[in-house]
Design goal:
Layout (H helix, E strand, L loop, with lengths): L4 E4 L3 H13 L4 E5 L11 H5 L14 H5 L2 E5 L2 E5 L4 E4 L4 E3 L2 E4 L3 E3 L12 E3 L3 H10 L12 E5 L3 H11 L4 E5 L12 H13 L3 E3 L4 E6 L5 E6 L4 E3 L2 E4 L3 E3 L15 E3 L10 E3 L4 E3 L13 H15 L12 E6 L2 E7 L10 E6 L6 E6 L6 E7 L5 H9 L4 H6 L8 H6 L1 H12 L6 H9 L1
Parallel strand pairs: 1-2, 1-7, 2-3, 7-19, 9-16, 10-11, 10-16, 11-12, 18-20
Antiparallel strand pairs: 4-5, 5-6, 8-17, 13-14, 14-15, 21-22, 22-25, 23-24, 24-25
């Protein structure tokens, strides 16, 4: 008797896979999740906290959608996977059998070995339960009398900015500890990191660079009272936000026989070492990677693309996962950030970069290109919205950076930007690099080939 497919995890990878599988298969589909009964948009957690949305607004599908599409939802935790028996042990004591299994359990906050990190008040920002914690342990909007008055955030990246923005809306005094010399040094160039750091500071968030935690300090009740820095300085706080990255949520797989490293090891079909078990999303680690891509990429877009491939392959197809060119988007308070291709934080001899800023505005761009061939390699944009399709196309064609710049108005998402500044961008690029740019009409013809 066929038991169908079981999917562990109802995030973007797991639910995308369930939907893709249902398009091509009438077999039973069961989705197991402990975090919440229904799929929700994880990237909207901060907006729930800030009062911009309610939780029900973050659910992409109505509750009736799942029954209509014959996708069974099980609200439980998977405690153990037993591949030899094609079985899962659930927290409800139920044993769930499967023919095929997809593991899409996502990430969890990455902790280090700080003394005191087990104190109450030390928390990451990833799950719905994290949101509930911050809701319950910080002032309500406009509430003045509350014991949580200060927070220290450890780590500088996108989650750090989200948490800082959230807490400042509740009048919590926020300090971010940055181990490096500028903000998000592993990803942003020095010019970008310095500008983003100043922007964060302008929103009332303190930044301490070249600073690490020595110890998290607690009071006699086991709650956070402050942190001691590597300099010896002590900062008073009632919350310590851990935003030093995430790691695959795979502890329950230890001893199962499923091969793991930092994540669950998969081939290009997203298969594990068991032919009927797949993995996708943040928890999956590619055995072999394509140029410029990392083995684990904990990004929403990657989870969605992996989910599409996993769903197809669970349905009997053999589609290789091809991530294409790197792209991502986020926000630093009110500055939108987009990246396409590869822009190195420290270019060295591998690429040359052109940095350009709109005078008196928080709008700036970094363009990367090969020093010899002048092929376009990537772009970071801040405060300027550009189209993914355009850059995916020019990267596929390994186009000359001059041609890319000459036709950049084709990527326009922001009429104000192009009506006022695109000519200055091209003029400054030609003057500073000595590289000629192509006419937009010529570029359109090239892209159509």
């Amino acid at each position: 008797m066929k038991k169908g497919t079981v999917i562990i995890g109802n995030g973007i990878a797991g639910i995308t896979a369930a939907r893709e599988l249902r398009k091509i298969s009438n077999d039973r589909i069961q989705v197991v999740s402990y975090e919440t009964p229904y799929f929700f948009s994880r990237t909207a957690l901060m907006y729930i906290y800030m009062g911009h949305m309610k939780f029900e607004h973050t659910k992409p599908y109505e509750d009736w959608f799942w029954e209509k599409n014959r996708i069974e939802l099980i609200h439980a935790q998977v405690e153990k996977v037993i591949p030899d028996n094609n079985a899962l042990q659930l927290s409800t004591k139920e044993v769930l059998k499967y023919d095929k299994l997809l593991i899409a359990t996502g990430s969890k906050t990455k902790y280090y070995s700080w003394k005191g990190q087990g104190l109450e008040g030390v928390r990451g920002l990833y799950s719905f339960q994290d949101l509930e914690y911050f809701e319950s342990n910080t002032p309500a909007p406009f509430q003045k009398d509350h014991p949580t008055k200060r927070a220290v955030i450890v780590g500088a990246g996108l989650i750090a900015v989200e948490l800082a923005e959230m807490l400042t809306t509740r009048n919590v005094d926020v300090t971010i500890l940055v181990r490096e010399s500028h903000f998000w040094e592993p990803v942003l160039t020095e010019l970008e990191g310095n500008k983003i750091g100043k922007h964060i500071d302008s929103h009332g968030v303190k930044l301490k660079f070249n600073t690490e935690v020595d110890e998290i300090l607690g009071d006699e009740t086991g709650k956070v009272r402050g942190v001691r820095l590597n300099s010896g300085e002590e900062l008073e706080c009632q919350i310590v936000g851990i935003t030093t990255g995430v790691e695959p949520n795979i502890d329950f797989l230890k001893g199962s026989g499923i091969e793991i490293d930092k994540g669950i090891l998969v081939n290009d079909l997203l298969e594990t070492n068991f032919p009927n078990i797949y993995a996708a999303g943040d928890c999956a680690q590619m055995r072999e990677t394509v140029s410029g891509r990392k083995p684990i990429e904990a990004v929403w877009y990657v989870g969605r693309m992996m989910g599409e491939v996993a769903g197809a392959n669970l349905g009997g197809k053999n589609i290789a996962y091809k991530p294409g060119h790197w792209f991502n988007s986020a926000k630093f308070f009110d500055i939108e950030y987009q990246t396409y291709g590869e822009v190195l934080s420290k270019p060295g001899g591998k690429q040359e970069q052109f940095f350009w800023k709109v005078a008196d505005k928080n709008k700036f761009i970094t363009i990367a290109y090969h020093p010899d061939t002048k092929a376009f390699l990537g772009i970071n944009t801040f405060g300027i919205r550009l189209r993914h399709e355009y850059f995916n196309n020019v990267l596929n064609k390994k186009m000359h950076v001059g041609k890319v710049l000459g036709g950049i108005r084709i990527a326009n998402f922001d009429a104000e930007f192009y009506s006022k500044w695109h000519k200055d961008l091209i003029k400054d690029f030609k003057r500073e690099t000595g590289i000629e740019t192509a006419a937009p009409s010529m570029l359109k013809k090239l892209l159509q080939r």
